[in-house]
Amino acid sequence: MGSTSAENHGTEGVGRRDLIKRSAALGLISVPTFGFLSACASSGGDDTGGKAKAGKKTAKNPLGVNDTAGMEFVLFDGGFGKEYAEDAVKIYQKNFPEVKVKFSATQKIQSTLQPRFNQGTPPDLIDNSGAEQMDMGVLVGKNQLADLTPLLDAPSYDDPNKKVRDTLRPGIVEMGQFDGEKVWIFYYAYTVYGVWYSQKALDSLDEQYPETWDQMLAVCAKAKKKGMAGWTYAGKYPYYLPFSLYPMIGKVGGVEVLDAIDNLEPNAWKHPAVKACFEAYYELYKKGYVLKGTPGLDHIQSQTAWAQGKALFIPNGSWVENESANVIPKDFGLSVSAPTGLDSSDKLPFGTIWASGGEPFIVPSKAKNAAGGMEQLRIMLSEASSKNFTSKVKSLTAYNGGTDGITLTPGLKSGVAALDKAGQNVVNPRLQDWYVQLQKEKIGVSGLGEMMAGRLTPAEAVKKIQGFADEAAKDDSIKHYKHQ
After folding, report:
1. Predicted local distance difference test score (pLDDT) of residue 294
2. Is 482 a member of any domain?
3. CB hemisphere CA count around 349 (13 angstroms)
4. How confident is the model at residue 481 (pLDDT cuts 50, 70, 90)?
5. Tens digit of pLDDT for each residue in 349-377?
6. Could you write out the DSSP letters of every residue in 284-345?
7. What is the CATH number of the domain that holds 231?
8. Residue 414 falls within a domain, yes or no?
9. Which of 361, 368, 377 is nearest to 150 (CA)?
10. How many independent structural domains does the chain possess?
11. CB–CB of 194/336 below 8 Å?
């Protein structure tokens, strides 16, 4: 995922949402953890600098930005680069010619900005991403973030008759909520998770992507005969396995199974759908369809082996196109599919996929020019800025549109097609952002990783993981979230 480390892959904001009702788009995002580096946020500190006076609200300036007040924007300098943000800053400066905008990009978000939060002098807009992401829960809990509702209710940049919120992909607003209606985080990019493969390799086997598990096993058997493993994955970081395993569980048993898992309900992991999907994955190991040595590979090594044609399938997120660009051959035919199901008795149709927002932007409550920070985001949510982002970084944005006239890269094109196929059947398990340690170290490494290495049976893995979930449910030191 760009320049973030593997340990920080795959986590997003904390919020409530209706899983089924949301459609989604795609992104190559830098998705960091919340819990790994807990922010030492303090609500103390005086706002010595004073806030900018409100400007006059007009049709062109609906947020009432002070047209002479400075605006400061700090971006995470990751896989997306900084050009897209610099381009959006130029529009802000053109619209407010007397304003001085201070723009900077850093990978050290927390160490650079935490002291400024503590002193009450934070920037006006922050892309709070990367390995050094500040803990959102702490920032919200200490009232250090501004509610972004004024931005969402403002007229959109391109059409004054549409509010910003009416131009967004469904689910974006809910992802930025914690407990309640206020929106603290704005996710600008989108990612799709699933099973990634080479269309060229699949064609060479004269096969289609398998929709049932019997077909999956048949394709893997055929690949094995040609000297190619069916699967590989990030063995050192086996919390990549859920990118295809969780939506498979949702497909087989229904979204309510995933919700129960997220809610840490007793015996949620003992649902027959979970057991069936664990047994399906374990079969890949038992039949020798997993690339030899996979448990010892990190994400880059497994992606490289896959790109070299040593394995057919890999569970991953859409950042893989950017992250592995230097090893994926030009004629590879990079493609993504929703996970294979079990059979026709599955609750949801083939095409059910996991997709969600990422790249979280925040406006601090003590920002001198919060209206300016929100206006900068409003500009970024214009069709032109959205198209600029997509064409430069191979990712769609939260803006619902903005791909006309852009030549999509193979992975992005395939992701858009996968999302079109999914329709309303887009799931977003919240475990990985509600309970980072549980998801990564316990379920991922100690549960799924051990099972796929052959050191636990599926029944033992289910029992062990249920135990981890029960411990987390009883742990009063962590905040618990529930699907509403």
Report:
1. 98
2. no
3. 8
4. confident
5. 999 999 888 889 999 999 999 999 999 99
6. HHHTT-BPTTGGG--HHHHHHHHHTTSEEEEEEETTHHHHTTTTS-TTS-EEEEPPP-S-TT
7. 3.40.190.10
8. no
9. 377
10. 2
11. yes
The helix or strand, by DSSP H or E, that contains position 354, with its residue range, turns out to be strand 353-362
Confidence of residue 78 (pLDDT cuts 50, 70, 90): confident
Q: Are residues 298 and 443 in the same domain?
A: yes
What sign results for the dihedral spanned by CA atoms 353, 359, 365, 370?
A: negative
**Residue 418 located in a structural domain:** no
Number of other residues whose CB lies within 10 A of the CB of residue 57 = 13
Residue 8 has pLDDT above 60, yes or no: no
User: Are 459 and 327 within one domain?
Assistant: yes
- One domain, residues 49 and 152: yes
Residues 6+ apart with CB under 8 A from 200: 331, 332, 333
134 alpha-carbon distance from chain centroid: 16
The angle formed by the CA atoms of residues 468, 470 and 476, to the nearest 5 degrees, is 105
**Inter-residue long-range contacts of 88-93, CB under 8 Å, 24+ positions, other chains counted:** 88/376, 88/379, 88/380, 88/385, 88/388, 89/376, 91/379, 91/382, 91/385, 92/372, 92/375, 92/376, 92/379
pLDDT per residue as tens digits for the range 332-342: 999 999 999 99
Predicted TM-score (pTM) of this structure: 0.77
Could you tell me the two tokens for 293? Answer: 């040595």
**Taking 70 as the threshold, does the pLDDT of residue 222 lie above it?**
yes
Give the span between the Cα atoms of 294 and 315, in whole angstroms.
13
User: Residue 69's domain spans which residues?
Assistant: 6-190+359-409
Confidence tier at 111 by pLDDT (50, 70, 90): very high
What are the tokens at 452?
């796929």
